[in-house]
Amino acid sequence: MEQKQLVAQAIVAATDGQLSLEDVVAKIEVPKSYDLGDYAFPAFALAKIYHKAPQQIAPELVEKISLDGFDKVEAVGPYVNFFLDKKAFSLEVLQEVIDQQANYGDQDLGHAGNVPIDMSSPNIAKPMSMGHLRSTVIGNSLAELLKKANYNPIKINHLGDWGTQFGKLIEAYKLWGSEEEVKKDPINTLLKYYVHFHQVDQEQPELDDEARAWFKKLEDGDEEAINLWTWFREESLKFFKGIYAKLGIDFDSYNGESFYNDKMDEIVEILQDKGLLQESRGAEIVDLEKYNLNPALIKKTDGTTLYITRDLAAALYRFRTYNFVQSLYVVGNEQTNHFNQLKAVLKEMGYDWSDEIHHIPFGLITSGGKKLSTRRGNVILLEEVLNDAVELAQKQIAEKNPDLPNKDEVAEEVGVGAVIFHDLKNDRLNNFDFNLEEVVRFEGETGPYVQYSHARAMSILRKAGDVSFDQLVGLNDEESWEVIRQLSNFPAMIKRAVEEYEPSVIAKYAIHLSKSFNKYYAHTKVLTDDEQKNTRLAMVASVATVLKESLRLLGVKAPDEM
RNA sequence: GCGUUUGUAGCUCAGCAGGAUAGAGCAACCGCCUCCUAAGCGGUAGGUCAUCGGUUCAAUUCCGAUCAAGCGCACCA
């Protein structure tokens, strides 16, 4: 970053202030190929000012630029290419990483402001599928990233524990369920009832009325309904927590939809007071015509609430409780309309803070090209995927490193890490069709590749024993230069990932850093006794630190050996 | 139909908010372990950046249209 300023200043000085520093900074780019330097300034913008061809201007600029801070400055066609002083720059970067350790890359974008994150949010009485994994791992990574940028994230698991579906479940249980069967295998049994319900109600639509009646009872506090619901909820939560433990993710709150049951009346009252509520086809709605959105359904004909009613209550509750600077919702892109409606209704209610509500959408996972659907039985169980991945990691270890001391622990970290990393490495919005082989791949651009790179670095450091990094020297060979440049990019990557709510920025970065390090590793023997040995070790230590930190920000463990 | 997201190599994706010969990974083929973990490194082959227009000195990148796909469009969440 500062290097870019240095380049910009040199250009501004050489052009006698014809261009502002800001303009020049905006124009400066990083050449695609190393032999074209570290930064480049295209002289096209000057062609009009000087009435000359940019190819002619570039060499003239080079004449006027002092070499202070650069190894070389040269003109190639219309470009002025800058080569940084490798020795000075590498020393500076390594010193910084060694000094700051895991704090390297920390920023203060958030000034400690609260940011509730609505994430994971599985539905009670249903198993967790690959679909929930996305919200969980993206939310978790955003929380870590926000923390690094000095925000105070609050991870809220907005459990899907309320709604008509529980009427259906209770109705199904009453018709076909047995207590013993549920106790044996809660989730799968409840799921079975639920799926069965949807098969039967195709021909017996009156079941839906029964189900709605049960949900009505639930909202009205009927004892039998509440008892069943509480039981289903507890069993589900036990099961979910097992999976979260496996993923290494925890939450600050498990306040799901039901938590807002007693907070919706106020919302309805406010809407009424402000004259926003209208009756339409027997239901209560808020018209959103002027936002070019469908009306928001606040209450159904039978007086029960809907998803958006609860989300309105939740939004207000979160604002009052956390006084947030931003409020995030990590929810699939198929719900974009819902969040547009949510924000619009809040805006109509006069809440300016609705502008700080951000839906963080992500793409859909399909299976065989088809949307996952619990009711139709088309699910990919997260638990199974994780188990498969860990098992595969075990095989891999048995084959490649049979003497590894803590095999099971490492297999867990690698297997689970592979699944998480796979989910985070691509753009959030990309859809993907589930493919087990792809998800648990350990070679190429994968989580295990990054973990392996880290383990290699740690291995060198172990072999090196005690070394001090007090007397570092500059490095200027080609292979280490690639690594140094990557290391220096880390803080900028953090910033971008936070600003774009995009963990994939960090995943991609980790791959690039790993690549440059593996290349270096193949080319240079680190543990050779010479005057640069300690500096090389400092670089290896820096790579290990930054890789481990990158993985941590993604929610992936970095074993020292694998 | 309306809204929205997407369209880059056989497959999966990058391309840093316009720039110098479009990059990786898988898959294919060929090399590299007497040397810090070969879960690695190197090489070969593979593309009219969906199509057509527009803005610009410069467009894969910005704008518009068309085509194709995903998702959403009132009593589910």
From TrEMBL:
Subcellular localization, as worded in the UniProt entry: Cytoplasm
Catalytic activity, as annotated: tRNA(Arg) + L-arginine + ATP = L-arginyl-tRNA(Arg) + AMP + diphosphate
Residue span(s) of domain DALR anticodon binding: 450-562
Placement of sequence motif 'HIGH' region: 122-132
The enzyme's E.C. designation: 6.1.1.19
SMART domains: Arg_tRNA_synt_N (SM01016), DALR_1 (SM00836)
GO MF term (any one): ligase activity
Pfam families (UniProt xref): Arg_tRNA_synt_N, DALR_1, tRNA-synt_1d
Matches recorded under CDD domains: Anticodon_Ia_Arg, ArgRS_core
Keywords in alphabetical order: Aminoacyl-tRNA synthetase, ATP-binding, Cytoplasm, Ligase, Nucleotide-binding, Protein biosynthesis
Top EC class, one word: ligase
Residue ranges occupied by any Arginyl tRNA synthetase N-terminal domain in the UniProt entry: 1-84
Keyword Flavoprotein: no
Assembly and binders: Monomer.
PANTHER family recorded: ARGININE--TRNA LIGASE, CYTOPLASMIC, ARGINYL-TRNA SYNTHETASE
HAMAP family in the cross-refs: Arg_tRNA_synth
Family: Belongs to the class-I aminoacyl-tRNA synthetase family.
Protein name according to UniProt: Arginine--tRNA ligase
Organism: Ligilactobacillus pabuli
Taxonomy of the source species: Bacteria, Bacillati, Bacillota, Bacilli, Lactobacillales
Gene that encodes the chain: argS
